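note to self — DONT lose this again. spent like an hour looking for the file last time. sequence + predicted structure for the chain T wanted, 505 res
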Amino acid sequence: MQIQKLVLPLTIILTLLFFNSNSQTDSILNKSLKGFDDRVEKIMADWKAVGCAVGIVKNGKIIYAKGFGYRDLYKKLPVTAQTLFPIASNTKLFTATAIGLLVNDKKIEWDKPIKKFVPEIEFNSDNLNNNVTLRDMLSHRTGVASPDFLWFGYDYSQKDIFNKLKLIKSETSFRESMIYNNFMYIAAGEIIELITRKKFENFVTEKLFSPLNMTNSIFTIEQMVKTSDYSKAYHSEFINNKTDSVDYFIGNSIKACGGIISNINDLSNWLICQLSKGKFNNNEIIPSSVFEETMKPNIIDFGVYPNNLNDKDRFYSLYALGRGITTYKGHAMTYHDGGITGFSSRITTFPNDSLGIIVLTNTTGQNISNFLAYEIADRILNLEQTKWHENNFDGTKKYRERKKIEEKNLKSNKVLNTSPSHKLVDYAGEYENELYGKATIKILNNKLNLVLGKYNLQLDHFHYDLFDTHDQVVSKPNFTADNDGKITSLLIDLNGQPTTFLKSK
């Protein structure tokens, strides 16, 4: 009887606490997010976004998890909180944390030259070999360039990219400024494998995914398409009112810099852990020392800054390890964006406000993941609301219209009635670049064809010795000759970087 008397009041108390907690959550949703669903749909409609998923974590709980639009536009399959999306560079914090676990186990150190622990790593100079640390690599301050065509233009493995590090030239002096570099995170993935003798994805799954109940999070498209709820990839040109499906791209090399595929429900657990300084379900998943290191700013990040000194919305950003650190309207904020063909993501936390925001989209050609993150913050934190969508939509529209005119003008600069300076057979052959390897020019159906990595493109004559690939990534192939009139080199724009290939003798 005594036990029964105790149990009943305790049950009532717990029930009241539960309903009180729910009522508080409902209050936040009803007040702060009133009209939010309609707002998301308007923004998506304006930018011609196909699908979007939004998650909000507050005070250690998921208070919002919802999908909008379609994961498959043609089959009209809706996005849900379970829909899988590639999160691209939001992988980087997982990688930095995984490295931190090895530091915590005293396998490596943040601030000693990485070559002392991993002799296999080679950079482009003795100075870098003798000085580059893990902190330098993961905060993008090595000064080394980031020729991203290497990882999406070829089927290289993580190990292949790791072995090419010594061939990648520096863009700035060591620790001079931030050069965002996917290759350093690819290298970090290989470092994890060399030290642990485990595949990177297996290590992350064991140490992070599993203890955080991130049971749906994976690393390959092959795994993703075997599930029942995943998103297709799209690209929109809203000024043309045009939306196209695009091919998936997650290469063999990018597991550690951008390979994770996840959903709102799983990533919410990740944010609950982040906002609890490494704890989840009262268990320490990430040691406090590791968490604190990922929060320490290491270099100025030029990606986020105010438009002017009177801009109260944002302030100058710093880069820590796998995340940016800044303020938003006086509130401390961490963030990272992710972008890959057909997908964009934004993961944001306000650590002092116990607030986390996730936005995943399946459409490139727009930036609504950022706008929505800021608009959610304005609502939940009761801040003055900035019209992020409207402010950026008009500017982006004008910019793209201007670019279309520039492209049209460029085509109008074509010099008419010119011919290639040589017979087609003189251009054919193999061309070499130390970093990118071989480019092959073939003759097919009386046209030049370029074979480079995964690309096989027909070359149409533009003028003189300049040709047109009709491709945005591999473009403007231009041949040059020596004083004897022999074709000696081929200049190609690779993702906007002019790159010279020398003709093999």
